[in-house]
Design a protein that fits this description.
The protein is α+β, with helices and mostly antiparallel strands. It is 58% helix and 12% strand. The strands form 2 sheets. It has a 5-stranded antiparallel β-sheet with strand order 6-5-4-1-7. The termini are far apart. It comes from Bacteroides cellulosilyticus CL02T12C19. Keywords: Membrane, Signal, TPR repeat, Transmembrane, Transmembrane helix.
């Protein structure tokens, strides 16, 4: 009886823990309830009523009518975010010669599907055509490795990993608490520790992905060039110049007309808000 009490108490605690990973996915689903992101994207009834379909955008793209494709994809995205639509929109802008907006939409697609190799490859191709070449401040290898691990899956994928590992953890606990053989108890104990760690990591990674999606603080320079100044004023000292397509981090978003930005190499300054667009 005592074993059963301990088992179900532990299960209850684990369920409360795992719910945080599911909440990350649910929050995003509520924010984008008109779209199901994945390989079989379904758009809302509103988009269908307006006779706007992804197939039409794809058809226009194949016919090299990039202006029409851009218009259709932009209309679709007003109904909700989808990685493949952002990706196709980025391709359309790239073909139309607007590198800055191509990078912007590739970055948005990558936020939703960070592990997508095609999106990342096209983003790198577009970045290669930008003028500014910024050398980032080197990171400790462990930090870079952790970021790569987190970004190998989306928030939904990490949530699913957490759920699967949770059920495997329950199975391991069952063997540990109720098996009469010492071997199975040891296997259940070791496997339980492994799956507990995986559940914790999956929840942390899902939460991190959720934060990146909901609290976006990176932007792309869209104007051909912009002067970065020391103060939020045209009279401020000119520090350096950035060109279209450059990715920046918004350090201070408190002002309406000006944004304090930071580059990957640590440089900071102020730019007009109209010169950048948040990813």
């Amino acid at each position: 009886m005592m074993k059963k009490i301990l088992f179900f108490t532990f299960v209850g605690l684990l369920m409360a823990l795992t719910s945080s990973g599911q909440t990350a996915s649910d929050t995003l689903q509520q924010a984008n309830d008109s779209v199901t992101i994945g390989s079989h994207t379904e758009f809302s009834a509103a988009a269908q009523e307006n006779s706007v379909t992804k197939a039409e955008g794809d058809s226009a793209y194949v016919k090299n009518d990039y202006a029409s494709a851009i218009q259709i994809y932009e209309a679709l995205l007003k109904e909700g975010e989808a990685a493949e639509v952002y990706y196709n929109l980025g391709n359309s802008y790239y073909k139309a010669g607007d590198i800055a907006k191509a990078i912007l939409n590739y970055e948005r697609a990558l936020l939703i599907q960070p592990g997508n190799a095609d999106i990342r490859a096209n983003l790198e191709i577009a970045r290669a055509k930008t003028i500014d070449k910024v050398i980032p401040v080197p990171e400790v290898f462990f930090v870079s490795w952790t970021k790569s691990l987190i970004n190998c899956l989306s928030v939904d994928a990490w949530a699913k990993v957490g759920v699967v590992c949770f059920f495997l953890l329950l199975a391991s606990l069952y063997f540990f608490f109720f098996s009469k053989q010492i071997v199975w108890k040891k296997i259940g104990f070791i496997a339980g520790i492994v799956f507990l760690v995986l559940v914790l990591l999956a929840n942390v990674f899902a939460f991190q992905q959720k934060n990146e999606l909901l609290n976006r603080n990176n932007a792309i320079v869209l104007t051909p060039s912009v002067t970065v100044r020391s103060t939020p004023s045209e009279s401020g000292t000119s520090l350096f110049i950035l060109h279209e397509g450059r990715k920046v981090e918004i350090k201070d978003n408190s002002m309406r007309e000006w944004k304090e930005i930071r580059l990957e190499d640590g440089k900071v300054g102020w730019v007009p808000a109209s010169s950048v667009e948040v990813i």
